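User: I'll paste a sequence; please echo it back and then give the predicted structure.

Assistant: Echoing your sequence first, then the prediction.
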Amino acid sequence: MKHLPIFLNLQNSDCLIIGGGDIALRKIKILLRAQANVTCISIESCKGIHKLANDGRIKLYERAYANDDIQKQTLVIASTDKKDLNKEIADLCKTKSIPVNVVDSAELSTFLIPAIIDRSPIQIAVSSEGASPVLMRLLRAKLESSIPGAYGQLAKIAGEFRDRVKSTFDNIEDRRRFWERVFSGPISEKIFSGNVDEARTDLEEELRNTSPADIGEVYLVGGGPGDPDLLTFKALRLMQQADIVLYDRLVSPQVMDLVRRDAELVFVGKERDNHAVPQEDINQLLVDLAKQGRRVCRLKGGDPFIFGRGGEEIETLAENGVPFQVVPGITAASGCSTYSGIPLTHRDYSQSCRFVTGHLKDGTMNLPWSELAVEQQTIVFYMALVGAKHLSEQLIKHGMRADMPVALIEKGTTDRQKVYTTNLKELPDIIDNNDIKPPTLIFVGEVVKLREKLNWFN
């Protein structure tokens, strides 16, 4: 990040625009919306700038720029068609410590003017650091269409009640819960529908009748296989409102970046034979934190109910009367197969798919090999990297062809994804000859042959 986004108060501040074209006009209009005092200097000016000057909204001097025009302005914008002049203006502003923006020249500027979505008092600024203004305009259009104008009214009403809510709830977590309940409930819906007075009355009633919660809630959230774009909307919403997040090693850094910024993070990751926090302790910790009134996000890679031990965790929560929600995630088998061009099923190759864990509770791999060693089936082995030699031997022993195609997908769906293809007999050798690390899934079946034809990802 080269630029720090800052919202600057320009009310009644002196701002100077040098240049009089259409681009300068757009910058002037932005400054006027911020209630700045605007002066424009240009030998020639467009009709829009003339009109603003004639209406008394800006000062316009139709002459050449001089160095002594820059004095103690709050900021300066250079919008001329002369590169040397723009650089001269920028250099002078920098010596005077005056923020300067040179239109279409991020390298000369000390600040940039972003694309703005205005829902005052809510403002959203989007910038590409000068790399692609057209892309920013397209992104702004998407945001404009997806963020109702009533959010500004909602923010104003929240501002009216802010001090009263603060005096009602001593604890910042209780205040946050109150506002999240208001913002996501019928009160906000009335504001969006234009029933502002009725919404204000309901907010008064809600404030009188509410009390701090004595028990929190647990969100068991599937974080997917790694790509943050694969998160569900519900997962993202609950990740953003949790007070504390318990996460494991399979949750990608990109997904963790989407957790609420001020949430407490607790790592409870587990590896084979190396459990940072034993599962029984995790179960109890979820109960203890919820009973402290906290909203706890138990964030897991993949899907919580597919070899994620989510069932054990909610069983403990239910036994202790702790409310919980479960949010399914895209399991690693689905995400990795898709990003590798390997369909889990295909009419010509596989009419069924089985997800199998290669690491049972007692550390063995005692599986129904005869049921697995059949044709027209895809098998996805989770946590089987260490036992790959054993599964290869057992499947061949129970009748599966030694040349059955196999794929190993390491860190699937992430920018570090690697795919290794081989066959069942040579599976142990490819693991021995490559530095393959978990998390890695092993896919066994004829569908692996389709990778070369269907791989769209890389």
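Residues 150-168 form the longest helix (19 residues). DSSP finds 17 helices and 19 strands in the chain.
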